[in-house]
Write a structure and sequence with these properties.
278 residues; mainly alpha; 2 domains; 9 helices; Trehalase; alpha,alpha-trehalase activity; EC 3.2.1.28; hydrolase
Length: 278
Amino acid sequence: VFSSSGRTPRPESYSEDVATAEHGKKLGREPSEVLHELRSGAETGWDFSTRWLQRAASDAGSSDLATINASQVVPVDLNCILLRLEKRLAAFARHLGDKDRAAALEAAAERRSAAVDRLLWSDDLGSYRDLRLDTGKAAVLPSLSDFAAPLWAGLTGRRVEALLASLRGSGLLQAGGAATTTLNSGEQWDAPNAWAPLQLMLIEGLETLSKTMGSEAPGSAELAEELASRWLRNCYEAWHKHGAMFEKYDAFHPGEGGGGGEYHPQTGFGWSNGVALV
């Protein structure tokens, strides 16, 4: 999980954090608790998303930022990133002749893979899903992390057909690429926004799946190509219309930048440029 050791406002969002912590008092939360969770949420890289809010724990939950509980979420993407790193480091160690370290890293990857399958896979949903420690249950809202991260980490196996079917029916795949979640909360890591790194993770995962599993993953190569085309169209139309590449895009309206969050939408933009070039 992500859990910051700090319980003070973030320097880059000091006034916003003070206001959110003060609002949290009305919800029965201590300011230091809210500040700790805001810092933890920022550490996730998804600052902010309903993934970390009460809304993801219950259909009746609130999307109020003061309900943030990021340290009580076991994220699919964090564990998939660590899994892929363990596999890569094991391969490096073996290439360098360090058999003991390679074996230890391979064992760690096997343990993590088994734990992710046991704790984060849902047979009912046909997908991976964040685990909420505050409820002991899977998150109620889907996010792109549920699909992109396991595919990118090669964590599919016998569940590939169910995962692909769930992805297609998730509501995440839109005209301008894959939306971050299915809920428009006003936070930037939610619908309607689509982010370049997540598109790359999903598309690369689907391409690798097609190469490694072939006929056992029907349609994965075609889906990867279609999503790449949708994303490039979104980027091109936005550049043609606005003369800029955006930090994030609107998955539902190709050619428009995304919004929400704590600051004005940024243009430039490093990772959008990089993913378009890839």
